[in-house]
Amino acid sequence: MKTVIFLIIFLVLIPLTCLAQTNTYTFTLTWQDNAQNETGQAIYRDGTQIAKIGPNQTSYKDTVTGTVGNPVCYEVTAFIADAGGKITTESAKSGRACMAMPAGAPPVVNPPGGLSISAISSSGLRITWEDLPNEIGYELEGKSSKGNQTFEQIASLGSDVVTYDWTGRRRYTSYCVRLRGLLPLGNPVSATAYSSIACSTTTK
């Protein structure tokens, strides 16, 4: 009778996708195959065989639906099968590798739309946008369009505000703005994504 000599030195789980509280997540298993004469390998998840793969393979992807925080555990064996595919000899299981189902990134909430900016004087610009439903305020950011300037907050505004006059600017200088809406407690995120950028130039 043939015997299977099989030793798994390590088994690594690599997460590929993210999930919310209960969602679908893909794991990648990797291992070192030291078997000399196996005809296949079996993948076990939480003690139950979920797949058979060919010999000499050293990775496998498994998509699981589960709850965030619950462990998912894997083991691998090598086997010899008959002509009909029935396992006749199987090695001991590898060491078990477990990983808790991770939480994913929070959802992206659409930003305010209709952002526009126009000059109202040589030192001022008027910024307007469309009001979002259920917001509790806005954060408005601006910068000069010259050089490698970064956006800085220029105003924190209350709910339902849809216009802001940005004054104290330089004469005949181009400025750019963006904003995001602030969301009430209980939402999965505290703010929307940033809006598109709008730019304009003060008058001479």
CATH architecture assignment name of the largest domain: Sandwich
Number of beta-strand segments: 15
Q: CATH topology of the largest domain, anyone?
A: Immunoglobulin-like
Helix percent band: under 10%
Shape designation: elongated
* Tally of helical runs: 0
Number of domains: 2
Task: Please state roughly what percent of the residues sit in beta strands, choosing from under 5%, 5-15%, 15-25%, 25-35%, 35-45% or over 45%.
Answer: over 45%
Structural class based on helices, strands and sheet pairing: mainly beta
Largest sheet: 5 strands, antiparallel
Succession of helices and strands: EEEEEEEEEEEEEEE
Uncertain runs with pLDDT below 50, 5 residues or more? Answer: 4-9
- Report the top-level CATH class of the largest domain: Mainly Beta
CATH superfamily caption of the largest domain: Immunoglobulins
Query: How confident is the prediction overall: mean pLDDT?
Result: 89
